[in-house]
Write a structure and sequence with these properties.
Layout: H1 3-26, H2 35-49, H3 56-65, H4 75-86, H5 89-95, H6 101-104, E1 113-118, E2 121-124, E3 127-129, H7 131-137, E4 142-148, E5 158-162, H8 174-181, E6 185-189, H9 195-198, E7 207-215, E8 218-228, E9 243-246, H10 283-294, E10 302-309, E11 315-321, H11 328-331, H12 339-347, H13 357-362, H14 367-378
Antiparallel strand pairs: 1-2, 1-6, 2-3, 4-5, 4-6, 7-8, 7-10, 8-9, 10-11
Helix pairs in contact: 1-3, 1-4, 4-12
Amino acid sequence: MGLKTKIQNSLFIEKYLKQVNESYRKLPNKVELTKEQERAIQDYWQSLIGFEIPTDWHRYFYARTGLFSVKYIPTSLYRLELTGRLNQLPWCVPFSDKNLNDILLPDMKQPHTHLKNRNGYFFVENKAVSLEDAVNLCANIGDVIIKPTLSSHGDGVKKLHVENEIVDEKGTTLKDLLVKYGKNYLIQDLVKQHPIMNALNPDSINTIRIVTYRKGMEVFVLYAAIRIGREGQAIDNESAGGISTKINMDGTLCKFAYGAPGQDKIELTDSGVKLEGYQVPSFEKAIALVKEQHLNLPFQDLLGWDICIDEAGDPVMLEWNTTPELSQSAVGPAFGDYTEMVIKDAMSKPNSRVGDPSYRMLVPVNIKTVVKYCRQKLF
């Protein structure tokens, strides 16, 4: 391993260590790992990957949930070593464009897309059109969602009602909105969710996140969680203030949900629904759907699916994620009973992250960085 790669790896790990330790400091109850727990963690991971790992994530999840496990996945390890081995990262960037969802997965039920913008060019029904034609064709599409297609965490997602080319009470025109969003976004119908899902929070589309792992021709469900928005919020992502809890394999919810690190465990949604035992409709359908469809995506063995349940009780795919965030506060160790299988499979493969341009941009290396690293790490 060259010096540049060592520096990149060090900076990459330090970035995520800083994040988890900031989250730990926000916890109302802080618990330190015992020496026995530290040793158990290192023994477990030494046997799996041949080297020790930072235990900051184990401390954080133990303090937050009260559940100790050696199987928690450190984010730095997940990002640096696992995602690039389980998925072909050079393929992840173009495939993660949400404008391709209906093309890559045509057999999955998805919200109808009225308009796509790809690299500044407009498409209606996958046919290229001008800005003027795009405005004319979408002048009265009613209740819709506009969202960027190359970003995550709900950034830029907004509900609209488009009538006579006007999109809000301020009189903003559709043309002005499209120009403001620039490029790489889409406008889709607003899904009307199932009444049982709507009861959790009527202000947001409450989605099921299912993480699947492919090994050969078999697809395993590593975990499922539900993401629920807060009162008055249209987005259910935890990064946008939402909460999440684990879905058991029988489709019932667990007792506690988790939001931001400083918040206590949550037993009731803002609409007053008790989480424990709440039955998610059509859960078995959603599981069967993503397991079937994962086989159509050969460059990614690990995927995160965002599924909503519509009024008819059908699973609707909103998006799929090539390097999904892990919801370990809500669900416990992300790979669960499959941890050893997934880790051993990953570590037997080459790491495609080595040539991933997004990784190089994330941890740039210049002469000042080299000098700092050498002083701190090498001497």
